[in-house]
Amino acid sequence: MKVVLVGFMGSGKTTVSRLLGQKMNLPVTDLDDVIVEQAGPIPVIFETNGETFFRQIEHDLLLECLDQEGILATGGGTPIREDNVAALTDDDALVVLLKANPETAVARVDNDPNRPLLKEDFSTKHVQEMIDARAEHYQNVCDMQIQTDAYTPDEIAEMIIREVVDREREVG
Fold first, then answer.
1. Would the annotation count 77 as a binding residue?
2. What predicted TM-score, i.e. pTM, was given to this entire model?
3. Known binder of ligand: residue 50?
4. Is position 134 annotated in a ligand binding site?
């Protein structure tokens, strides 16, 4: 069983992935954590080698992570590369898009210094522009989407579990 969470930063991917792992008794992988473990702090990668270099590392590690069972929380920009879109859509994982309003996303990331793409501008307007720019990419990879603003992480995890159970019934 594989569940992949995608969505903009601050949408709840990390929090929900941990809950899903506990509730479903599955291992949890956070792609950003894997990148940090393998290549160092994300802001340092951006500063020293640029976003293109970072995205290549992200792609390579995404492919490795998709070979494993469990819950995978991707980075907010993972679906912006076409080869990542192909990897996510070709995989048999349930891909869930977690969406948050820009106000919610800004409040959740709260000037986190590990967010290099928001380093210069943490405004709601800038976040909305980034969400809009990525929206089609997110839509292209997801099997299910949840607007997270109105739900607790526990409620979101339960919605995903219901979807997994429904899909397993259809297959089995």
1. no
2. 0.91
3. no
4. yes
Class of domain 2-171 (CATH, top level):
alpha beta
Name the nearest CA neighbour of 157 among 8, 15, 55: 15
Alpha-carbon torsion, ordered 41, 153, 3, 132, to 10 deg: -70
**What residues pair up with 29 in beta bridges, in sequence order?**
72
148 is in an annotated binding site: no
* Strand partners for 95: 4
Question: Is 169 marked within a binding site?
Answer: no
Distance, CA of 122 to CA of 78 (rounded, Å): 20
Assigned token pair, 5: 């969470």
pLDDT in tens, 132-167: 999 999 999 999 999 999 999 999 999 999 999 998
CB 146 within 8 A of CB 161: no
| Rounded-to-integer distance, Cα 91 and Cα 67, Å | 9
